[in-house]
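Me: I keep going back and forth on a fold encoding question. No explanation is needed for now; the record alone will do.

Assistant:
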Amino acid sequence: MFFIAVQVIHTPLVLVTQTPLFLALQQALADPAAVIAVIALYLGLLAGLFEEIGRFLVFRYFFRRRDIDLSRENGLAFGAGWGGVESIFVGILVFVTMFSYIALTQQPGVLNAATGIPAEEQIRVLLAVTPLDILPGLFERLMALTLQIAFSILVLAAVISARYSLLVLAVLWHTAVDSFAVFLGQTQGIIAAELSVFVFAVIGAAYLWWQWRRLPTGGSRS
């Protein structure tokens, strides 16, 4: 519920501001890579600010008003739910895209006019997709879920200890993950982007292992 609430504000803001910013950067910066870098940083920062501050507000106010324990178990469940809903939305987008593409393959004239590529060639590309082509997306979702749980635990620790520097760290960490993924995906390809997410996910798993023993367990009040 809270993930959706955050995206109701976050997503329209991205849609409204991304194109004007991109056009302005193209005029101001001669290097295309620099334009992509700034856009990636902007998108990553927006995601970090909205999602981590959203998590903070939920832990700080909603949990306490509902008398929900600020425990490591609840933090883990909340992070898994947040990342799980995100994965559902990603899955829906992929399904809609695939369904639209398959539907368009039944109208060769539309495909040819839209892309300039013969429909038969596009169909061959689609039929050439194998399970190995799908696995990177599955692994990305697993890595993203690990990171969403790590972000949630970090923000939970910020609320419990009243150390708001941890909230800033969560925002910066989230910004770095998304920024590197966008920049590398646009400049080096999807494999490089996935590798960067993998590295951050390993760091997230290590953080979870380290922090888990330091947070209160279920049944304690914070």
